[in-house]
C-alpha cells in the first residue's frame, strides 16, 4: 500500500510539473507579454525601456504629443495673460491727469475705486499677491511633478485657477481678492514651470529647440495680450452686460471688472476639461506601472532603475522643499542663470509697467494706450530667426557624431542683450515730455526690439537649463521661477515710485543704462557655464540618470 501511495504521488508530481516543451511555450508567452509592454528584462531581473517602445513618451505619435503640448501651452498662455490683465497704469494720478480726463476707468482702477484702495494697496492686492503665490507654487510643484507625475498637477491647477477666478468675481470682498489672487498665482505656476519637464519628457534636444521657443513665446504673448484684454473687456462688453446688470442689481463698473474674472474662469475651466484627456508623460511612472503589471502576472521579483522613488515622508519633504531651495543657493549654474534671468526680468518689468501711462501722454485713449504692447508681441516673432542658426549647429554636431551641448543654444542671448539696450535707449529719447512732435510709431519701433529681447533671453536661459538638467529640468526651473515671480511682484512697486517721481525720459534712461551694463552677461555665461556644469554635482547626477534611462541620443 505504501509503494502504491508513493507511486501515485510520483505520478501526480509528474503531471503537475510542465514538460520541457511546455516550459518553452510558457517562456515564449512571457516574452510576448514583455514585448507587448515595450520593455526589456535583464538576466538580473532589471526592467528597462525598449528603444522602440510605443508607450515611451518620446515614441508617441505626433498627434498625441501635439494635443498634450498644445493644451498645456494654452493653459500657460492664459494664466500668464491673466497675470497682467488687471495691472494698473501707474502714473495716472499726476502727469496723466494733467493731460486727459477719461470718462471710464480701467479694470484695476474700477476695483480700486469700488473698494476705496490706494494705488499701492491695489498693486499689492492684484499684482504682488499673485506673484507671491506663483513664487511659492513654482518652488514646490515642479519637484512634485517629477515624483508623482505631470498630468494630475495640470488638472488640479487648472480647476483651482478657474475656481479662484470665479470666486473673486462673485464674492464682493477684498479679502477674497487677496486670497484668490494668491491661490490663483500658486496654481498658475504649474503650467508655467512643469511644462519644461513635459517638453523634456516628450522631445529630444534637437526638437526642443522649437518647443521651448513656442513655450516662451506663448508666455511672453500672455504678458503682452493681458493688458489689452483687461482694458477692452472692462470697457467694451456691450449689451449683455447691461442685461446682467439688471439681473444682478449691481453697478456696471463692478460688473465689467468682474467679467474679466468670469471669462478667465470659463476659459480655464474648458482647458481643464481638455487636460483630462492628456496622458502621463513621466517615463519613470509609466515604467513603474509596467513593472507592477509584470510582477503581478508572473509572480516575479522584478525591479527597475527608479530615480524618482520616494522611500518616506522625510525624503518627500527633501524633494519638494529642500532640493529646489538648495539648488537656488548651492548650485553654481542655477545661481548664475537665475541671477541673469532676474536682472533681465527686472529691467523688462520696470519698463513695461509704465508703458500705458507713457502712451496716454502721447494722446492715446485709455483703451488704445494698451495697444503698443502688441508691438512687443511683434518682436517675439523675430525669435524664429536665431533658431535657424541653432538648427544649423545641431546638424553640424550630428554629422560629426557629437552630442549637442547646452552652450550651443546661447548665441541668441548675445543678440537679445544688444537688442534690449537699443530698444530702451530708442524709446527713452523719443517720448514726452522731452519729445512731443515725433509720430507715435517712432517710439513704438523701439518696443519691437524690446519684445525680441524679452523672448530671446527667456528662451536661451530656459533652453540652457532644460538641456543642462535633462530629467530634472523642472526642479532647476523651480528655483528660476521662484526668483522671477518675486521680481515680477516687486518691480511694479519700484516702477510706480520711479515714474511717479521722475520724468518718463529720465526713468527709462536709467533702465536703459542698466540694460547696457547688462551687456557683460553673455560674456560671463559663455566663459563660465561649461566649467560650472562640470563641477556641478546635481548636473552630473541628472546626466547620469538621463544616460541610464534614455531611449535615444540627444
From TrEMBL:
One Pfam family matching this protein: MFS_1
The entry's keywords: Membrane, Transmembrane, Transmembrane helix
GO molecular function: transmembrane transporter activity
Gene3D superfamilies: MFS general substrate transporter like domains (1.20.1250.20)
UniProt subcellular location: Membrane
Transmembrane stretches, start-end: 153-172, 209-239, 259-278, 333-351, 371-389, 410-428, 440-459, 471-499, 505-526
Membrane topology summary: Multi-pass membrane protein
Cellular component per GO, a single term: membrane
The keyword Transmembrane is assigned to this record: yes
Keyword DNA-binding annotated: no
Residue ranges of domain Major facilitator superfamily (MFS) profile in the record: 69-530
Official protein name in the record: Major facilitator superfamily (MFS) profile domain-containing protein
Naturally occurring in which organism (per UniProt): Recurvomyces mirabilis
